[in-house]
Amino acid sequence: MNKGMTLLEVMISMLILGLAAASIYATFAVVGKGPQKSSATDLQAMNYARETLEKLKNAVSTNSTRSTLLDAGTNKSDAVAGGVFTRTYDVVDIDANDDGIVDYKKVTVTVKW
C-alpha cells in the first residue's frame, strides 16, 4: 500500500484551504471598514443636489419652447444655507451615435461645503 497523497487530493485540499482563506479575508475587510454612516451634512448636500436636478427637470417640462438652463456649457453656481454650501451644475450635450443631433444631456451637480 502506498503511503503518499495523490495529486488530486493535494489540489482539492488546496482549493478548500483557498476558499477558507478568501472568506476569512472578506470578513475582515468588511469589519475593518465599519459602518458607512452619512452625516447630517452629507444628507443635506445630497438633498441640495436632488433639489437642483428637480428644478432643472421642472424648468424643461414647464417651458413650451426650450429652457436655457440646460444649454450646453451651462455652469451655474449659487450659495445655499446661508453660504454654508456652494451648489454648481454643469451641462454637456451627448451625441451617442455621432449623427450631429444631441441625444441627451449630461448634468453634473456638485455641492461643496
Give descriptors for this structure.
single chain; 3 strands; elongated; 113 residues; 22% strand; three-stranded antiparallel sheet; alpha+beta; 2 domains
Describe, in plain words, how this protein is organized in 3D.
With 113 residues, the protein is an alpha+beta fold. The protein has two domains: 7-35; 40-112, no CATH class. It is 44% helix and 22% strand. It is built from two helices and three strands; from the N terminus they run ααβββ. The protein has helices at 7-33, 40-62, and strands spanning 75-80, 85-94, 104-112. Strand 1 and strand 2 form a beta hairpin. The longest helix is centred in the N-terminal third of the chain and has 27 residues, at 7-33. It is elongated. The termini are far apart. The model has no long low-confidence stretch (mean pLDDT 82).
Helices and strands, with pairings:
Blueprint: H1 7-33, H2 40-62, E1 75-80, E2 85-94, E3 104-112
Largest sheet, in brief, is: 3 strands, antiparallel
Q: How would you state the average pLDDT, rounded?
A: 82
- Overall helicity: 40-55%
Broad structural category = alpha+beta
- Indicate the radius of gyration in whole angstroms: 27 Å
Number of beta strands = 3
Overall geometry comes to elongated
Number of domains: 2
Proportion of β residues? 15-25%
Pattern of helices and strands: HHEEE
Number of helices in the DSSP assignment: 2
Physical arrangement of strands within the biggest beta sheet: 1-2-3
Low-confidence stretches: none
Query: How many angstroms does the end-to-end distance come to?
Result: 75 Å
